[in-house]
Amino acid sequence: MSKATARHILVDSESKCADIIKEINGGAEFADLAKQHSSCPSGKSGGDLGTFSPGQMVPEFDTACFQGNVGDVQGPIKTQFGYHVVQVTERT
């Protein structure tokens, strides 16, 4: 069974999510932006979600983590919690 290690930034709008992705692509540090903007408690630790298996996250998030490329910044990914910027840092 595969596992993914990921981090994310949770915000309340698609446009805010897109702005954060632009900042990351422009060289801003993912963890710093997570601490500043994420409404998820994981924001305090740079958005780190740890390692998880398929099916442990909501379906939209799961798809991004197990089908997207490792290292790519993905988003906006809409879930019932809001809009996510997601980066898978490792997949085994």
Give an overview of the whole structure.
Helices cover 32% and strands 33% of the residues. It is of the alpha+beta class and 92 residues long. It has one domain: Chitinase A, domain 3 (Roll), CATH 3.10.50.40. The protein has a 4-stranded antiparallel β-sheet, sandwiched between helices.
Provide a compact summary of the structure.
The chain has helices spanning about 15-25, 30-35, 60-65, and strands spanning about 5-10, 50, 75-80, 80-90.
Number of helices: 3
Name of the top-level CATH class:
Alpha Beta
Share of residues in strands: 25-35%
What is the string of SSEs from the N terminus onward?
EHHEHEE
CATH topology: Chitinase A, domain 3
What is the averaged pLDDT score? 96
Rg measurement, Å:
12 Å
CATH architecture: Roll
Largest sheet: 4 strands, antiparallel
What is the structural class? alpha+beta
Provide the helix percentage.
25-40%
How many domains, as an integer?
Answer: 1
The general outline is globular
List keywords for this structure.
4 strands, alpha+beta, single chain, four-stranded antiparallel β-sheet, Chitinase A, domain 3, 92 residues, 32% helix
Protein topology:
Blueprint: E1 4-11, H1 14-25, H2 30-37, E2 48-52, H3 59-67, E3 73-79, E4 82-91
Antiparallel strand pairs: 1-2, 1-4, 3-4
